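REVIEWER CHECKLIST
Item 1: Sequence provided? yes
Item 2: Single chain? yes
Item 3: Sequence as submitted:
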Amino acid sequence: MDEQFDFVVVGSGGGSMSAALVMREAGKSVLILEKTELVGGSTAKSGGVMWIPNNRFNAAEGIEDSLEKAELYLNSVVEAREGDAPGTSREKRRTYIVEANAMIDYLMKKGIPFEKAPKWPDYYDDNPGGMLTRTVHAKLFNINELGEWKHKLRPNSFPYPLPIFDGVMLPLIKRSWTARRLAVVMTLRGWLGKLTGKKWVTAGAALQGRMLQAALNAGADIRNNSPVREIIVEDGTVTGIVTEKDGKPWRIGARLGVLLNAGGFAHNQEMRDQYIPHTRKEWTHTGEGDTGDMHKELMRIGAAMGQMEEMVGNQMFMSPTGGPVGAQMQLAKPHAFMVDQTGVRYMNEGGSYMLFCQEMLERHETVPAVPSWVIMDNQFKRFHMMADSMPGSNKPAEWFSSGFLKTADTIEGLAKEIGLDPAVLKATTERFNGFARQGKDEDFGRGNREYDKWLGDHTHGPNPALGTVEEGPFYAMQIVPGDVGTFGGAVTDSSARVLLEDGTPIPGLYATGTTTAAVMGRTYPGAGCSVGPSLTFGFVAAKHAAGLGNQVL
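Item 4: Structure as written out by the authors:
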């Protein structure tokens, strides 16, 4: 070996940093290798929230939750989705709930401040054990505290200095005094920050900024531009990796083990075509390093792989001026619905983004639905965001010239513009409007769950998620099944050890994050069900590798 460390981590997402902190506290040397120029992984680009049931914040407020209640909910959601899911089990889900709370307690002892979203409902809140909030996030972070490292942290697309749960309210600025107050707070905070030399970041940048700062302060060795090419296996045991240094192979030994947290394969079109057909790498919101390198290495050394057909679907508009733009919060607002390429509505447009994209892809197997069309009216344009534009604003000329945004004075005229049967689209619209007027979606139940209502417009009634599409001019935009990461990979046990096909662990090899087959199986039960497990099983892996077991740190 050219170098030796106790623990080597491939990738720099959330789980990498939590593992590094545990290792350093145990007195062990740790190296984090990031293949790109920027650290933080897709975690830094994300909303940065974590789904932590039975958390300390709800307990402090007297909000009833428990391990049993959390298990009841999680099991009901995961087990309702058909399909073999070897990355999850009741034992592993229980481990997640317990260790996620131990992880949060540990990080707070290390000085990383977290808080709970006042309201962010579970995505299936009407299931047994569902609750109105279990989502935890890092507080705003002054990125200037990172010094020279602030330029090496991957940025995200949340420019406002507000907690992520407040940022969700901003698009309602034309409808809500709460949103207007938050806009004032945001402006004042930004102005004061400039006066005091602070640059506040939120969401994943706040989480990863704080985690990076803590890892650096603890003495972790973090290197960017260091792609890992090979996992070294000797006599069945993983003993290190091969990276690059000065353009040449560089062998690094790992006395206690290697942790893979290198993301998924969202930017690898060949793998997408094999495992998740009808999706495109251009539709993903992950970092550019998400190319499946470690998935290929895991397959080469014989690791068990599972749930490779799954992704954390996130419906996207492909704006010609802004690239992929998350569409969930917009499509779930009143005065919009979605149809397939025959003009028929086929799902609840609110709810879980992962389920949304699963249903779109399943529909496409029998009826053309990728892309689908979002149908909106002038009410929607006045009150809600369209792609990356603010409510009521004039839309870029390029939107019209490129065909991204279609418009007509009547629904029948809009149907002709987008190649649909006018009679079919008119009938779909009239049926939807009938549901909107009565406040009950009799076809797909949009607005029945608290989560649907929370995504909608709380100023609108009788159902915050439903509003008529009847005021011309009318608009249409295509929507595609994008993603914020793939959700399949190495099968791991409750100690985050990578398993062989026969179920035995590969000595010295651990994995977390989207390099693994998700502990959530083929579902996404709540906000932060990929970031939370990444940090948690990085924490678990480091404790196991350091011989700390499940002791409280």
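Item 5: Key structural point noted by reviewer: Residues 173 and 415 are 31 Å apart (CA to CA).
Item 6: Recommendation: ____
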